[in-house]
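Q: What would this chain look like folded?
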Amino acid sequence: MAATKKKHIINKVDLFPDLEDYGGKPYLFQITGPRGGMRCYQRPGSLSPLWSVTTILGQIVAKPALMNWYNKMGREAVAEHLTSVVGQTLTPEILELALREAGSRPEKSKQEAANLGIKAHELISTYINKRIEKDSSSYVDVPDDLNSVWDAFMEWERESDIKKYLKTEFACFSTSYKYAGSIDALAQTSSGKFMVIDWKTSKSLYPEHALQVTAYANAMIYPLRQYYGLPETWPAWDYIEPWVIRLGKEDAQFEAKQVTDPLLALNSFLNGIEMWYGLGLPGLTPKAKKDLEDYFELPDNLPSVW
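A: My prediction, written as structure tokens:
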């Protein structure tokens, strides 16, 4: 793999489990574009991209609530800035500063929320790894700004049917459909079922979250079958449960939703991949494509409806 010379972030993400099929390299490279843009995964030794599940969904799913939030944040920024100069002469400079704040505040707030989400994932991952390693204390140091999230997580765990955690923060992929992603946690219930879990610290859960976690669960069917020596006729969706767990940042409440129709969710995601191709791979701009050529051999005839 070519060394990066730009702003790409490259992480090595573990796979589960350590199978011989992985060629002794049970991990993927995760390649994230500048400013968190286009994300791909790569198997060691491969020159074919595995497209990120969240990148695909982010390009094809409309987010009217997000647009409304952006507008609201912008209006509030203008109002706050101009309120401080009421009674003064409104100059072009004052107006420009107000508009500049309106343009930057939503992204700042979004980044702050994302940073808190990353910290929450790291905290929970640390705790789960202690559980997996059978650390008797399972103690983690909870920062003040994550107290509510942690309390919500502990309350969810107490009410869940988890017998043991198997892995946290690891990659999964599908060579058939050329996608990959990162699973927050894999657990097993007292009845032997497997829970594929995705944590959210957003204010709400949305249908695309179900598509995301189900795509991950689908990518786990083969490795679970291989690792546990299950037959090809194993009824995977009777034993694999995709779950999305929202942990409140302010109210210490949780919301847990199981995808009750995983086949519908999976087919919707796979149709979404086809839509992404049909729309000309939005997000894969000419510049992004050129950048990715440092890592992949992208075909000249990428799917197009034209």
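The longest strand covers residues 162-174.
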